[in-house]
Amino acid sequence: MSNNAASFVGDIPSHYDSGLGPNIFVDYADLIVQQCQAHSPQSVVELAAGTGIVSKRLRDALPQETRLVVTDLNGPMLDIAKTKFADTDNVEFMVANAMDLPFAESEFDLMTCQFGVMFFPDKPVSYREAARVLKPGGRYIFNVWGAMASNPFARLANEVTASFFPTDPPGFYKVPFHYHDPLVVKADLAAAGWNQVAHDTICLTKTVADPQAFATALVFGNPLIDEIRARGGVEPDDVVAAMLESMHSEFGQGQFEMPLEATTYICEVSK
Known about the structure:
Blueprint lengths: L11 H26 L5 E5 L5 H9 L5 E6 L2 H8 L9 E4 L12 E7 L8 H11 E12 L6 H13 L17 H10 L5 E12 L2 H10 L3 H8 L4 H16 L4 E13 L3
Parallel strand pairs: 1-2, 1-4, 2-3, 4-5
Antiparallel strand pairs: 5-7, 6-7
Helix pairs in contact: 1-2, 1-7, 4-6, 5-9, 7-9
């Protein structure tokens, strides 16, 4: 994935983990781990694992003898993930491209990916790679964000940022929220040979206890910060301040509640 939208490097991983993790990732991580655990896999590979939010929960939920391989395209994200594990934990870390996985055919019982598929530039190719490395009867469990309209924090982040650059608005937030239609996702899966697919759209209400940290991470915790700096003429902290004001206007002062929506897919290999 050479797309800059997938480049989570520099200071981005730390902001991502501390500011975005608690507010938009951990609850869906708990749910996807429950789905994985229910299938009692003996070997698991995680794609686009980021800072290990799902990875740590997987390791805690699965028997220690279960093989767990944690991958991401961005080494700096995995560097933070590694800090969450003890030296004695049975976990392997690897920088890997979802379009060209460095694994043998039929190597794993289960593959999982939280909020990563949207960034893969060729999704059918990534789905074919998933089928290749999974055993017959193996499962690929992943989730994707719903539309911006169903995740208003993303809509606000996109609108606020665009207001600072009206002639050349940054496009980062369009990437993770563009792949929300189950018909499109299932068509891509079918093109890659997957024909046993179930999906479930899950709506949550999240309490944001530290809106300042959340607003900061919405700017500094993803490649949006690179787009802002590349355009110049705007202080990123000013974008954060506007982001915070916009969220308080939409959701209320102090800590607030906001809706989230994502869809989980459970796909079974038939070979």
